[in-house]
Amino acid sequence: MQRTTTAPAIARELADNAPKTAKTGNYLPVRGGGKAGTRQAAWFLAAVVVLALLAAASLAVGARGLSLGTVWQALMQFEPSSGDHAVVHARIPRTVLGLLAGAALGLAGAAMQGVARNPLADPGIMGVNAGAALAVVTGIYVFGVTSLTGYIWFAFIGAAAAAVVVYLVASLGRERATPVKLALAGAALSAGLYSLMNVILVSSQDTLDRFRFWQVGGIAGRDWSVVLPGLPFLAVGAVIVLLSGRILNGLALGDDIARGLGQRVGLARGITALGIVLLCGSATALAGPIGFVGLVIPHAVRSLTGPDYRWILPFSLVLAPALLLGADIIGRVVLLPGEVPAGIMTALVGAPVFVWLIRRGKGAGL
Questions:
Q1: Where would I find the H helices in the chain?
Q2: Between 106 and which of 67, 183, 316, 351 could a Cys-Cys bridge form, CB atoms 3.0 to 4.6 Å apart?
Q3: What is the pLDDT of residues 116-165, one digit of tens each?
Q4: Tens of pLDDT along 60-95?
Q5: Which CATH number fits domain 90-360: 1.10.3470.10, 3.60.20.30, 1.10.10.60, 3.30.360.10?
């Protein structure tokens, strides 16, 4: 008698054979261990070292350059009368914001590409940037908000609301929230929200003048009053996304196979999307709409880790803030005594890197 094979058994067999089929370009989950696991751990340690060096450089580099020894003394033995020590402490909130916003964008970008199964997914695909921008413009125009602290709450509410609307619209119909429907819903909502925003900006020069500072995107000029309100949202979002590695590995196999493995696809996407909303909304609210970080880093990471999201997410957590801090440091010194905002520098640095990664053919598929 011929043995019948059930769908769950087929799905498990495909998952078990994923290392053999990963070379086809379909990013199937792989098992870390042995030499591969050791190599990935070594790369991760190197990434942490690079991030630590860039964080130290962020405290030392600027219009007033300082030595690392001075930075260490300012952190360990602060002297209020020392001008150098005061400069170091003034740069701490900026550096911390770079670490937090970069980590949030990296995690959200990697998870968003997994949930949407779209290699070009970034905060724009779910309407996050458009929702945050419209909310900030509304806050300035209607409520007269003038402080960065006020922008944070409006931006977060707008980003979260836009992402929820995109997911609800994409969930309509029998197939629920498919990758194509998510992309189309996000693009349509972004176009509509930006149109509404432009209507307000055209009718109010004062609103346009205030909005431009936030719209460029950057981590300069922020203090602890801006950073601290976003910490709870960032922490909850990071925990949700970091724990979704297995979920994203299952979704990478396709909805049918993920269901065969026992996943509730709609619920899995919804939970992961919640983490993405918290991370994207918080990062966009704190630093403005910074592009390319959440798009480039996951692609670069896959060339080191392979398709396993249990490695992609931690690597993105470390390398994304390294990119943002590096771009911010370059922006401080490239046009002295002025500065180029980090949002502009990430595009200038990230775009060539992204083109190079795509031409190499690595990380282009999901």
A1: 7-16, 18-21, 34-60, 68-76, 83-116, 128-143, 148-170, 179-203, 205-216, 224-227, 231-242, 245-252, 255-260, 265-287, 293-305, 309-333, 342-360
A2: 316
A3: 777 777 777 778 888 988 998 999 899 888 777 778 788 888 988 988 89
A4: 998 888 888 999 999 998 888 888 899 999 999 999
A5: 1.10.3470.10
